[in-house]
């Protein structure tokens, strides 16, 4: 990772056990280059969300450290450098969808940008629901509002934990096509947890396949396909080859590399 790179992520010997003794992450080492999108894929419960929460500075590791551009991630998050969109969208219930998204800019001390707000709401398909409060949105709509909230600050680091999990298949494909250019053209470093191999290949420059808990890297797969990627890319031989490579790595027994 180049020196002085504000958005490169370094995980060093990262370990985290949860109360009750579950070791979710054990001595995890990885570097994520600035401006690249990496998909994390692995069996359910292997520690992907824990890893993302450690990288976001939302949890402290028991051992090891995370550095983003050489700095503590919690500090970077408070400065608005890092945006997260997790499975639980956690929108403020008393604000409308648009106000929830706009608040992110305020918290990051960025000036209001109504044009950008409207553009993002349109891209995530919520233009007709800007004034609607979260309780009156569907689960998928709340997730889409959370994605818009994560993108509205043009963050240097974007952490997405199954961001399209509650979104229907058709909308998912549309979002997978429309949203990545927003962060990829502005040099954002993105980490994306997904259970979908196709989504990983469509969105990412690199796929890390993780073992069952505690998560460790069993395969590090480059996705050298040009952006932007259209959904029909899924029919190409190159796409299928990478997808098959990731699938094979996922089915490796624990302990095998
Ligand atoms: N807050 C918590 N308190 C206690 N245990 C936790 C907590 N969060 C996660 N765990 C445990 O840590 C392990 C890893 O969970 P984590 O959510 O990181 O996995 P995951 O790979 O993201 O799973 P999934 O793909 O199902 O979302 C699991 O055994 C889970 O029960």
Automatic annotation (TrEMBL):
Keyword annotations from UniProtKB, A to Z: ATP-binding, Nucleotide-binding, Transport
InterPro entries: AAA+_ATPase, ABC_transporter-like_ATP-bd, ABC_transporter-like_CS, ABC_transporter_ATP-bind, P-loop_NTPase
SUPFAM superfamilies in alphabetical order: P-loop containing nucleoside triphosphate hydrolases (SSF52540)
Keyword Signal set for record: no
Keyword ATP-binding (UniProt): yes
Domain of life of the source: Bacteria
Segments forming domain ABC transporter: 9-237
Pfam families linked to this entry: ABC_tran
Sequence similarity: Belongs to the ABC transporter superfamily.
UniProt name for this protein: ABC transporter related protein
Organism whose genome encodes this protein: Paracoccus denitrificans (strain Pd 1222)
Lineage: Bacteria, Pseudomonadati, Pseudomonadota, Alphaproteobacteria, Rhodobacterales
């Amino acid at each position: 990772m180049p020196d002085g790179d504000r958005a490169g992520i370094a995980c060093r010997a990262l370990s985290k056990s949860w109360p009750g003794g579950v070791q979710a992450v054990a001595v995890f080492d990885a570097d994520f280059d600035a401006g690249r999108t990496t998909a994390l894929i692995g069996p359910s419960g292997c520690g992907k969300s824990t890893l993302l929460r450690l990288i976001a500075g939302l949890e402290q590791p028991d051992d090891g450290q995370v550095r983003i551009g050489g700095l503590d991630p919690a500090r970077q998050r408070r400065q608005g450098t890092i945006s997260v969109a997790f499975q639980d969208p956690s929108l403020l219930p008393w604000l409308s969808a648009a106000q929830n998204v706009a608040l992110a800019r305020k918290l990051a001390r960025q000036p209001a940008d109504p044009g950008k707000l409207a553009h993002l709401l349109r891209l995530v398909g919520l233009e007709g629901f800007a004034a609607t409060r979260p309780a009156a949105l569907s689960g998928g709509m709340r997730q889409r509002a959370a994605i818009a909230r994560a993108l509205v600050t043009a963050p240097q680091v974007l952490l997405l934990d199954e961001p399209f999990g509650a979104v229907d298949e058709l909308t998912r494909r549309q979002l997978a096509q429309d949203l990545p250019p927003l962060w990829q053209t502005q040099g954002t470093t993105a980490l994306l947890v997904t259970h979908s191999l196709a989504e990983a290949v469509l969105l990412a420059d690199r796929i890390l396949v993780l073992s069952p808990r505690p998560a460790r890297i069993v395969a590090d797969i480059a996705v050298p396909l040009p952006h932007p990627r259209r959904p029909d890319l899924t029919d190409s031989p190159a796409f299928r080859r990478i997808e098959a490579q990731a699938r094979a790595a996922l089915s490796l027994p624990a302990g095998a590399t």
